Amino acid sequence: MKSIDNQFFQTHLQGVDVSLDSQILDTYGRDWTHLREPAPSAVLFPRDTDQVQQIVHQAREHGFAIVPSGGRTGLSGGAVAADGEWVVSLEKMRTMGEVNITESCVDVEAGVVTATIQQAAGHSGLFYGVDFASAGSSQIGGNIATNAGGIRVLRYGLTRDQILGLTAVTGTGELLALNQGLIKNATGYDLRHLLIGSEGTLAIITGATLKLWPKPPLRDVLLLGLPDHQAVMPLFASASHSFKLSAFEFFSQACVEHVCTHAGLQPPLDQPASYYALLELDQVDEPLMLDWFEQAMDSGWIEDGVISQSHEQSQQLWAYRERISESIAPRKPYKNDIAVRVGSVPALLEQLDELVKQHYPDFEVLWYGHIGDGNLHLNVLKPDTMALDTFKSQCEQVNELVFAAVQNHLGSISAEHGVGLLKQPWLNFSRSAAEIELMRCIKRQFDPDGILNPGKLLSG
Ligand code: 2HG
Ligand code: ZN
Question: What is the pLDDT of residue 1?
Fold first, then answer.
């Protein structure tokens, strides 16, 4: 690692806030994965786009790599700095414009926290469509860089679908202002969409114009107990034809047990079910709902269920799904975030269930996910007595089989968490050699010296 001191920054990046403090280096060098030891050489806190450009120029000139950094809530190691990089935190760039009521949009800098956007939209009678458990600390720049999905993709799409304009600084320090809030713009390649989901490997996102939606109507939340995972697809098909769904989530009884222990909650139903589906939908009349509920019971898709009677109850029901990830975090789970077309979910579930029973007989395996959009989170918990390295390598062996099954279904090895460091070795299970080569060529154009987030997404 190259040595660097305060004097260097005072000389070359005057006016930019920099920290070389070991505690700060440690904090800003990691995300929620905790699988690599952080070792950045500096953490920089630009206050505007101009400073971001200066940082890129200096990094380029002095041969330092950059790791763009947001709320660091990622689960694929995309924000990990383990090799003397400069972490460029966007957290001091958090200006947010007035909500534009006429155009239903808002301008934000990259460091604005996702929940702040949701609240500002709400105060103006509008709605920001993306939500997930880490919205209170994740930042919009990171959401864009990973094309974050979450719980309401069914209704509002991914982060990609919210981006009307984007500003970003490339690996040569060039500032790009892309699409600039336009709805129609048929002028060739849409570079905005190339940068969304590029995980900081092509450019540092500095700001965006976000689309906002009309305020949603009142909504019901249903938590339903399912006898087995075969019931989930007919249930989804029936619900999506009968209601205006905004979420259709899925989780196993083991997930409920972890949440109840962790959060001190009572079980949601009188009798535990094997699996659960959580549905959020535009409110419907009670008789219609009861008819549907009875039909679902008669068809054997559900055994029991509850319907929220108030906003508070809706939130309580959501907690059984939203708090799974935090409940199991102390057990250092090995995470998979896979997706297939919705119609292929039952076959994939069947195959993975077999695989897991055969290869993980001693591990606790948790199933949960956003089944309504084909995204499954498969989490394997580390036995307390097993060393982290042993656990990781055992999981990686089974990974090949899991990803081969995903590949057979033409699915994705990373649905919404990104590829980062952790999934990078398996990118070829989702992308052809020709695609990966084109991605490399594109990277070279945006970042000829390879200083932006090296080793993430594409191998170094
Ligand atoms: C969720 O859906 C998040 O809760 C985290 O995407 C998933 O913990 C996970 O694997
Ligand atoms: Zn998720």
Answer: 62
